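Worked example 2:
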Amino acid sequence: MGRITEDLIRRNAEHNECVIFSLEELSLHQQEIERLEHIDKWCRDLKILYLQNNLIAKIENVSKLKKLEYLNLALNNIERIENLEGCEWLTKLDLTVNFIGELSSIKTLTHNIHLRELFLVGNPCADFDGYREFVVVTLQQLKWLDGKEIERSERIQALQNYAAVEQQIREQEKAYCLRRAKEKEEAQRKLEEENESEDKKKSSPGFDGDCYTDIHADCPSAMENKDHLQVPETQEQQHSTKKSDEIEDDLAFWNKPSLFTPESRLETLRHMEKQRKAQDKLSEKKKKSETTPDFDYRRWEGPECE
């Protein structure tokens, strides 16, 4: 998985001659980043920050970005809104398709007095009854919510029904939190089972698919020579069986039912990463086999051995 490094930022700062301390715009989308870090120390002058389509689970380490106006965290694994109070000039915040179920966490945005646009569509909280009314009343400074302008008449009506809506939101939040707790528990149990299964595979004989010979054995007889000649065929069969098992495992992974949760997103990305590593390892082995000369079995004829 990716991390935010100085080198990564420099590579994405070509428009600023790779100088990062004076950057005003930075795009780090689709980097498989799991944690939001370092940016508030290295890029204090940022006004626009794109971090969409990553694996970020928490909003953090951005409080020193006083000049930040637009923050895009769409398609991440965020579950609550927090730690944005220090972004004094934040005008637009995009949290489309995350996992925010704690709608009351938007109250932290009341400190961002310049906030005009907020996107929460695609989050669990956006399906709550009374969602829009709650946001409209809570964030009086907002002009647009999920791409739709907030009319003055809508705000007045939302204020009139706020007491009932707030109670409704609390109840839905509570139900959601209970459900998420069960999902996390199930995901943890599943992860432990998979790790245990992997450990068993690694400890089983011939896990790496390599074939070993006994270097301490005496010189092979003519019959043993025949056995040696059959080894490459056996290796090919083992490789074919292993490849077939891997294909079956891969199909089973993609066909199994799965909830859309932060854990399932991580599981999918890690599965894909595992596939990439396995493919790289296979390619490396193939290159080595192509550069290694074939073994001359004629040298193992019995009569020549003492």
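Strands lie at 25-27, 48-50, 70-72, 92-94, 117-119, 144-145, 148-149. Helices lie at 6-11, 39-42, 131-138, 152-160, 162-203, 222-255, 262-291.
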